[in-house]
Amino acid sequence: MSLRKSHELHQRRFGRNLGVGLTLAAFIVIIFGLTIVKVSGSDFGMSTEEVQN
Amino acid sequence: MTDASINASTLAAQSRAYEAGFGDYFALLKPRVMSLVVFTALVGLLAAPVPVHPFVGFCAILFIAIGGGASGALNMWWDADIDKVMKRTKGRPIPSGKVEPGEAMALGLALSGLSVIMLGLATNWFAGAFLAFTIFFYVVIYTMWLKRLTPQNIVIGGAAGAFPPVIGWVAATGSMTLEPWLMFALTFMWTPPHFWALALFMRSDYDDAGVPMLTVTHGRRATRTHILVYTALLAVLAVGTAFSGIGGPIYLTVAVILNALFLRGAWAIARRTEDDAEADNFQVERSFFKLSLLYLFLHFGAILAEALLKPYGFGGWS
Fold it and tell me: Which residues cross the membrane (chain A) (predicted)?
């Protein structure tokens, strides 16, 4: 039996799985974006300086 | 019957059963209520006197909306028994059999935790805690405790719906002043006349479900009077807000016009008898309900306009 053979369940749940996949991808983008904003913000710079001092 | 035949028949039954799609789970979040949450929270965030990074602002609104959606899912889980009785709600995912009650509860709890933690991380923990309190207030205080206990349920539910602009403001500033509470009060006072007008022309719904709506417990005459009293108090509050830090000439103009129209509608509702209402199929009540939607949208729109024009020297009184 081929590993690629998809079950009927896969077709039935394609929409749901696609939605969950896209939601998770969007969540990753949000976490990445927030990290960039926080790291480049002045708050993070100050706390880094405090740690260095 | 052999195991094989039982399995075969179970599988056949499962394949015939409705498979919930992504949209069914999304419907648990009450997208229409979420749109109001997004708009009012956005106004709260932008009206605050502290600038927010656009991406942080976007995330704040998103997580407030997800928190609102989560409380909607928990509300649908708890209220599934009355939702299947009411015409307005029997098409919802749980009463229509598309989603299992346990799934709705799990989704609601998971999204509640996620939204609170993410809002706290994206903005500040005061805002996160406020969102957590809002979810608790809507789900536990309103849905589980008071909704089926008191005819003032709409007033209490209105408080839960009024928190988003305060959360938006706190997300931006990390502190609290009078202005976000004026926005809170605007939505809080607006909710009862808005819903009682709906209850007047969707009357069998609440009666059938046994929810102690004011129309059921105190009668329709008392409900009409309540609408007028709340609308009068709302008008004073709405026009008075024009002279606060979030008000200005644009807001004042909008508030005066809309409150005059709203008062006129409430007065017409209070004066009508049931026979009058039956004769024209609740035309006045339906118009009042439609106006109420525009009322809130335009008031918050005016607050937003004042905030956006401020940097150019136009917004506010200065």
Answer: 20-37
